Amino acid sequence: MPENIKVNVHHVTRVEGHGNIVVDVRDGTLEKCELQIVETPRFFEAMLRGRPYHQASHITSRICGICAIGHATASLRATERALQVQLSEQTQLLRRLAFHGEILDSHILHVYMLVAPDFLGVGSVIPLATSHPDIVKRALHMKKFSGDLCQTIVGRHTHPIAMTVGGFTHFPTVQELVELRERAEALIADVDATVELFGTLPWPAFERETEFVALVQPDDYGFIDGKIGSSDGYELELDEYRQVTNERLAPHSTAKHAAFNRDSYMVGALARYNLKHQHLSPRAKAAAAHLGLSAPCYRPYLNSAAQVVEIVHCIDDVIQVLDTLIERGVEREDPAPVTLSPHARGVGACDVPRGILFHEYQIGEDGLIEEANCIIPTGQNLANIDRDMRALVPTILTEPEEQITLKLEMLVRAYDPCISCSTHFLNVEFTGK
Amino acid sequence: MDRHPTTLILGTGNPLMGDDAVGVIAIQRLREHPALPPGVDVVDGGTDGLGLIPLMEPYGRVILVDAVPMGLSPGAIRRFTWDDARLVGHGRSLSLHQTDLTDALILAETLGCLPPEVVFYGVQPHTMEWDQSLSPAVERALSPLIEALIAEVRSES
Asked: Tell me: domain A41-203+322-422, CATH 1.10.645.10, correct?
């Protein structure tokens, strides 16, 4: 390395946001307690306006390296609903597989690499690799499977090039599906070990009743389409999503806050578990019991436990979907046709790892996008995180600052916020006390 | 461990973030390059982080292509090795923490599954803001970058 080069490998572009926790206690009174997000403006509409509709899923899949398939799916569904596209059963099955691949990938990353270090007494996954190499190797082994699953179905590990409006442009062979099935079956031992490991962790007992919101479908623990369900007893059509998200500005955050029937709500794995646990696979139900989950669960730290339950469910469902596809065979279908009309609007929604993701497009008769809107799950959770912190802090004020800091960080991390590198970027600032 | 005999060229970055796209665009160009020798895999790693570990593991040589802020003129290309980057990182001001990619490399090294040879081709970005095009300086750097990568993979490691 020559002396005169200053290398700064600082990929700030990988950071989906920058979060600070600010707690201000003066004379024993909690003056301020909030998660400050300084989020890069997304320029979502500017990215898409004037673009042909078929480019939208490829562009938006690049917004997030973790939820690439989620953004692509929400984008495709918005376009397909606007352009009256009817999907074949095969397309729906293949998308379901790819989506499970991403849920697995993201949940494994979160529970093993970001959550487990807190409980195992190390600062991050790097020292964990020294203290518990088997655990980290297991996580990477599981991630390899989910990555290869996505690669086989959508043509690329992270960014889904084979998914297109109305279907797919590339199809897996039955032989590839058979091999994936064998690997999924073999992965069950790792999945069981995951449940065992997380079953031993001392989840903090903190609880606060709140509203949970997730996509719901009859008889299915599905992640794509459906209706917007609330634990307060409401069920809305996807087109009514703005009535749920009710975005408003919060002074300490460049990301907007959301509220539905209360002053905040929670989306993500725990919300899904609470709203549709009855549709989990039998092994996932057993895992939930082992992890101490029972609905309704108001303990936000257990969102990570609910993610473990979803890892079990997704592996089971992957095997089931693979069986269906292997039995029926995979045909090289042409994408389903679109119907263009003036100013056609469509809302696409899917429950990505962190919660419901909404895309809404208006597409002109010329096939160009006229308007676009996107609401990400982390934005929907911000108000709820603030309220959790405000309820938690008074109960732990007598603890050392280090402990308070750790518990707040762990709380924020439990929501799996889309702040990449949240291990490093969360700083707790004590302005009073 | 038996390693796959081939070389991997892995471009990373976000095509929505201006010059951060350079690694991904380099991969697209390399795929169509007539002089790309056999036995070289070319992969667009996007903004994946730890998922790159199992992707890199089977290879004996990995060449990473990315936008790297190095305090140089926009479009400047520098080749450096993982050892260079890591040593400087520990000794001086190089910020090797707080990134998914460097975490992935450190983690792979800790677990003993980092490929034996890891080389970086860093391109100094001009801007990394929300923008779907490269700056002129980085656009001009693409041709020499591709030529350098082709020369690298045609050389014996």
From this structure: yes
